[in-house]
Amino acid sequence: MANNTADHPPGNSVAEGNHDGDFGVTVMELRELMELRSAEAVNKIQDAHGDVQGICRRLKTSPIEGLSGNPVDLEKRHAAFGKNFIPPKKAKTFLQLVWEALQDVTLIILEIAAIISLGLSFYHPPGGDSEACGQVAGGVEDEGEAQAGWIEGAAILFSVIIVVLVTAFNDWSKEKQFRGLQSRIEHEQKFTVIRKGQVIQIPVAELVVGDIAQIKYGDLLPADGILIQGNDLKIDESSLTGESDQVRKSMEKDPMLLSGTHVMEGSGRMVVSAVGLNSQTGIIFTLLGAGEHEEVKKVKKSKKQGPPENRNKAKTQDGIALEIQPLKSEEATESEEKEEAKPVKKVNVTKKEKSVLQGKLTKLAVQIGKAGLIMSALTVVILILYFVIDTFAVQGRTWLAECTPIYIQYFVKFFIIGVTVLVVAVPEGLPLAVTISLAYSVKKMMKDNNLVRHLDACETMGNATAICSDKTGTLTMNRMTVVQAYVGDTHYRTVPEPDAIKPETLEVMVNSISINSAYTTKILSPEKEGGLPRHVGNKTECALLGLVLELKRDYQPIRDEIPEEKLYKVYTFNSSRKSMSTVLKNADGGFRMYSKGASEIVLRKCSYILDAQGQPRIFKPKDRDEMVRKVIEPMACDGLRTICVAYRDFPAEAGEPNWDNENDILNDLTCIVVVGIEDPVRPEVPEAITKCQRAGITVRMVTGDNINTARAIATKCGILLPGEDFLCMEGKEFNQQIRNDQGEVEQERLDKVWPKLRVLARSSPTDKHTLVKGIIDSTVGETRQVVAVTGDGTNDGPALKKADVGFAMGIAGTDVAKEASDIILTDDNFTSIVKAVMWGRNVYDSISKFLQFQLTVNVVAVIVAFTGACITQDSPLKAVQMLWVNLIMDTLASLALATEPPTESLLLRRPYGRNKPLISRTMMKNILGHAVYQLVIIFTLLFAGESIFDMDSGRNAPLHAPPSEHYTIVFNVFVMMQLFNEINARKIHGERNVFEGIYRNPIFCSVVLGTFVLQIVIVQFGGKPFSCTALTIDQWLWCVFIGVGELLWGQLISAIPTHRLKFLKEAGHGTTKEDIHEEQMTEGADEIDHAEMEMRRGQILWFRGLNRIQTQIKVVNAFRSSLYAGLESPESRSSIHSFMAHPEFVPQSEEEARIPTIEETGDEIDLLPSASSGAGGGGEPPSAFPHSCESSI
């Protein structure tokens, strides 16, 4: 061993490194070491450092005590080896966002039109005799108005600038908000390290090279390290290598642990050897251009010597990240990585369907966009034809060269009117409303303990029809305590006194519990005086350690005497074993193994049991059946979880057994004790479940516990109600019922089971995934089910991924579960899920409110502009006015209506379901009803306004005429009606009281008042640019009075029963049932929704006219881009937020960085966990318990 050299750093390393001199090893040496795998790595460590202890010495750290934690030392390590932080991609600057907002087609058309208009207004044709050019030029010279001809063009340009700035500012604030959310997520991820001999948790960013970190099942490694002690460690490295097999790690064979990989089994300790940009993940990230850093050059150098699998990742063409996507991974961990320390960006595999709302909105936007395009084209054609026929045919004039500019000016004016109609027709506020609503909800949901990782999850939650919940920790408090025990032939209903148990039995029991549990599990003194002791680590083990303490013994001295290094072999708990065993080597050369696990599984392996004297006696199968009947079932009926603790001795003379043959090892055990552990139901859960049931959501419990415990808890929670026809079954029975003779799952069989199933007990992860997939794919109900799933363990990954919305536990959840989830419950509480449902429904309603308001304005504005233009050759609402109306009804209204807070009443109706149209018949009634009122008023004012208000008519005004009072009143009345209709739009289900709860929404009040004030300013002082003249106070009062009429008219409309109006159609449907059948047939093929099919059929052309929707996409991209760090999100391919994701619309810079999404690269991948064996998942017990607790329900 190279001990002597380790203490004196070799000269070269000091000379080489400028500031690595303090340590006996440089960054580059460690980095090169981490690029090696398995045997190569072991040899390199032996050649260069002697062994891992040698590396520890050079890094000046102790494998047992860890670092000192002295700030000076930590600072030195930061300087020498870097920080565990990967700098995020630079945020887009405000100017970049402005430039992106300017890319929008409609705005560009408007800008060009405005510039032409400006140019022509400055061009005065020489000697253009106005008579010769016809009446067109009549009145041009009034009051030097010709000089003011530039104003309209300038005003349009100015409005465009305002629109662009508003859009860019929205994007910018979203991005800022999102980065705040990111950093919060990052700060919350902690990792366990040993410092000064104490086990502490520190934020991942504070890890330094030389730290001794403890790793366990379910962790996501935040830095590279070298194993210094491990038990049965298996790692899923698919995120780096793409290989789906789990890699077994051991000191002898393969001690290299890489950042971004998942611990799937076992536990151990590692010394951190590379952090941040120097870790394997960081290196890949640098290649993706995320950490623009001076490291880049070094990386390129070291890459060339890297192993082949790393070299192929270094390709920097289009497919940059494809090598990194874990498309074959067993645990579905392919959601985008969020933590700073796990930066392997992965291409996200699309969920089965895009979010319900986005699907409906895409269709609706497509339909409205088409209509707008047709109307605007018609307007331009009619205006030009009318002008040409009137001038050249009716008046019989000839086209004179000197008149050309005047004619062109007319054509430009017509063109601007056409574009304006289009601007008003296209609801570009929709994506903005969606984004604002979601962003607002996400922010507020943080307060309700919901940390939303995928924006659309929040809205999908509103449609949820089923929740499959875990039992432990979600429905129960996850604070386990032993309340009953069976030891020495006696069943104690409470924890026995220590002297009631024979000392020999007590000794072996205390040893077994203390040693055969993760050493990271502890019971600490309470934080507050008089509080409960704190449970750290696995909760079931905490309960057993609590039992040791209650028996007046202590587990710590035993652990100190036998530290983890002395454990000979550990079989860690996993979902197929359902037990954990630890082997110790005795002084005489024999071995002793301690085991614990689910009672019916461990008891089946017991051949002996300790009797009242503490002596082993034979334990036959019939004894076991009797014990199950008399001890375990009664415990389970009380809702207790039963755990059996046992041991086995291997005598020295028999030689060393073959440890890999688990079936032989885990046999002939001697049972010490069976304990009943209670996990009390959270007090607030029964009420929350009642709310769910009232809201039309079915709650199902899926647990690994036995069926009696599960049934007892389900009854306490209210999942099972007396007198209801329901099913409770075990995983094994479930599999028998749903699989055919070949062992394949059949949907028809599943459809017979799931509607009545309420409790699935002893289920494996595969069962959970099968159930969720079966419910989602099922077509038996009227609507397709939307399923939410909660999970905390690594094995829940696939089900969380498959579900429409996956909830992971923030406290008890493993990193793998959090990665696969959409929402993290920061308090692990079921009531937070109910809050999420409320917010989800609220998002849906907010969008509907906005639509109801928006479409009314659209219909009215388009019809007024169109008919006005056709009859009077001039739109009553000028381009600039239209842009202002567009601004209030889009940007501001989406702000006002999208931020309504949710109310409890949202939980009193059933979920909308996937096929419910966005615009219900009630909403259609409101839209058309209000449109009729507004059109009647506007046309009355337009054609009879001058006589009513006794003033000059504004119709047929010549080019550049000054703004008329008449048209100002038309414009003002129009805006007033929109303002009051905005209040009507707050209710969409035909409620009478539209003011209810208006004070709870300060944003709404301020937007309405702000708009009103701005309108006064525009009308009184807007002058020529806004084509307005100041109005008298009388005229203002009339305008407001007509506006208030909207509220009264709204009451009248809501009095008409909707069901009488059979002719009303709904709009904005979701996918229908036939589509679902088709979809199932093509599962695995590309999934494109039907709105998109339409687009692809050569109709992309009209998209180009589809205005600012693109601009708002940036808003969403701002949200997403920080998530995907430059990778195109596949979900966004099929959503309203991404008309830009089609290559036709991608600006050059984005085109280069595009990465093929799943839709382009092929199949959707269905992920199943590895731990499933045969039909029933791992080690399922036979239905040992007939339904013996029926009577207790």
From TrEMBL:
It is a multi-pass membrane protein. Signal peptide: none annotated. The chain crosses the membrane at residues 97-120, 150-169, 373-394, 414-440, 927-945, 965-983, 1003-1023, 1035-1056. SUPFAM superfamilies: Calcium ATPase, transduction domain A (SSF81653), Calcium ATPase, transmembrane domain M (SSF81665), HAD-like (SSF56784), Metal cation-transporting ATPase, ATP-binding domain N (SSF81660). Its main location: membrane. Residues 46-122 form the Cation-transporting P-type ATPase N-terminal domain. Residues 1-20, 297-318, 1167-1193 are annotated as: Disordered. It catalyses: Ca(2+)(in) + ATP + H2O = Ca(2+)(out) + ADP + phosphate + H(+). InterPro entries: ATP_Ca_trans_C, ATPase_P-typ_cation-transptr_C, ATPase_P-typ_cation-transptr_N, ATPase_P-typ_cyto_dom_N, ATPase_P-typ_P_site, ATPase_P-typ_TM_dom_sf, ATPase_P-typ_transduc_dom_A_sf, ATPase_P-type_domA. Its EC number is 7.2.2.10. It is found in: Cell membrane; Membrane. It is an enzyme of class 7 (translocase). Keywords: ATP-binding, Calcium, Calcium transport, Calmodulin-binding, Cell membrane, Ion transport, Magnesium, Membrane, Metal-binding, Nucleotide-binding, Phosphoprotein, Translocase, Transmembrane, Transmembrane helix, Transport. GO terms for molecular function: ATP binding; ATP hydrolysis activity; calmodulin binding; metal ion binding; P-type calcium transporter activity; PDZ domain binding. GO terms for biological process: regulation of cytosolic calcium ion concentration. GO terms for cellular component: glutamatergic synapse; plasma membrane. Belongs to the cation transport ATPase (P-type) (TC 3.A.3) family. Type IIB subfamily. Catalyzes the hydrolysis of ATP coupled with the transport of calcium. This is Calcium-transporting ATPase. The lineage of its organism: Eukaryota, Metazoa, Chordata, Craniata, Vertebrata.
